[in-house]
Specification:
The structure holds 2 protein chains of 2 kinds.
Chain A: H1 2-18, H2 23-46, H3 52-73, H4 76-98, H5 106-127, H6 133-156, H7 168-184, H8 189-213, H9 215-219, H10 234-266
Chain B: H1 2-6, H2 12-23, E1 26-27, H3 28-38, H4 47-60, E2 63-70, E3 78-84, H5 86-115
Antiparallel strand pairs in B: 1-3, 2-3
Helix pairs in contact in B: 2-3, 2-5
The chains are: A mainly alpha, B alpha+beta.
């Protein structure tokens, strides 16, 4: 009697767990799985073995199956960026847990995760449009540069954390030029070359604007995003921006090469 | 060699399920018990692994669902039975042939090692 009661209870819990399976899978296999689970418990009861530990193992094993089946329903172009983001995010998570002075707020995790996921998803969506390796490399360089620039801008500030030099929104403009431009040229290699060149020009325009609008503040810069590379001067601010501009130009050249290659193939 | 390109190696779970179904059609619990018995208790499959593999094997055409019927040895609930297909049988035969070839190579090597050649 006691066995039957506990079997019924475990079976009910198991039925609840099976609801977590994706719908098509659940509709096909939930009933036979529940039946099999019941058979296994009945067998143990007949042998006079306890069922708690066994049921727990089956729950864990089935939960792993649920994760596997759920992951398989997610399209690969979303799954890959999500997994990459999850793996990379493990570093700051462990850093925050175990490294002194590494105390990220929850919103820093959300921001970093969203930025990483967007960059990886952007690469997946654009790069898979063409199998040409140079085109993919160009997309990769563009995405990594935009990601690094955004990261430097938001996390540290390319001009440091000077409230007197509020250049952060200007860099959103650089990204916006890239996004709108890519949509307008429909990601075609030749068009993308011009978009990347425009981003490089926009990038270098920011320190020029900063120098014109905030001439006093910029001359007193003591900290830029890469203090280890540049002297804390006007040249430092220009240098930091020049790195990103150079990366955008490199991407533009790769797009040009990919375009020429594709054109030659078409002929 | 041609066989290995048309029939890629099977995962242990798929191989054991095909072996269990090679003699007769079985329901999920029956497959589990047969796998356990065939492997002398070394392979223990839970329902998550078993039904996940069954789903993929059905999609690959290696097995198919048979009718729902009552197992005379169990209680009176109707169970879904699974049956090996011709494609499944071919895949199983190819895998077993691969195993035989590996064993033959291993035997040859151990013989030459014993004779020091």
């Amino acid at each position: 009697m006691g066995h039957n009661q506990s079997i019924r209870r475990f079976r009910n819990w198991y039925g609840t767990l099976l609801r977590l399976y994706p719908k098509p899978y659940r509709e096909r296999f939930a009933e036979p799985m529940e039946q099999t689970f019941n058979d296994l418990l009945q067998e143990r009861a007949k042998e006079g073995k306890g069922s708690f530990g066994f049921a727990l193992w089956i729950f864990a094993e089935t939960f792993a199956g649920i994760l596997r089946e759920t992951l398989m329903t997610i399209p690969k172009h979303i799954l890959r960026p999500a997994l990459l983001t999850a793996i990379i995010m493990l570093f700051p998570i462990f850093g925050s847990l175990y490294v002194d002075d590494w105390n990220w707020h929850w919103y820093s995790f959300v921001f970093a995760g969203s930025l990483l996921f967007s960059a990886a998803l952007g690469y997946e969506l654009v790069a898979r449009r063409m199998s040409n390796k140079t085109y993919r490399l160009a997309v990769g360089v563009a995405v990594i540069s935009a990601f690094a620039m955004n990261w430097a801008n938001f996390a540290v500030g390319i001009f440091g954390e000077f409230d007197d030099i509020p250049t952060k929104p200007f860099y959103w403009g650089v990204i916006l030029i890239g996004l709108i431009g890519a949509a307008v040229v429909r990601f075609r290699p030749r068009g993308m070359m011009y978009v990347m060149a425009a981003m490089a020009i926009a990038q270098m325009t920011v320190p020029v604007i900063a120098l014109i609008v905030w001439p006093v503040e910029i001359r007193h810069l003591r900290h830029v995003a890469f203090p280890m590379l540049f002297a804390p001067t006007v040249a430092g601010a220009f240098g930091a921006n020049a790195i990103f501009a150079a990366l955008f130009i490199a991407s533009a050249l790769l797009f040009r090469r990919a375009g020429a290659h594709l054109k030659a193939q078409a002929v | 060699m041609a066989k290995s390109t048309t029939n890629p190696p099977l995962t242990p779970a798929v191989l054991h399920i095909l072996l269990a179904l090679s003699e007769q059609e079985r329901h999920g619990y029956g497959i589990m018990k047969m796998v356990e018995s065939d492997s002398q208790g070394k392979v223990k499959m839970g329902p998550g692994t078993l039904y996940g593999s069954l789903g993929r094997m059905i999609e690959a055409g290696l097995i198919r669902e048979s009718d729902k019927k009552i197992d005379p040895e169990m209680d009176d609930e109707r169970r879904v039975y699974y049956k090996i297909t011709a494609l499944g049988q071919t895949a199983l035969d190819a895998e077993l042939q691969r195993y035989r070839e590996v064993i033959a190579v291993a035997k040859r090597k151990s013989r030459s090692a014993a004779y020091g050649t």
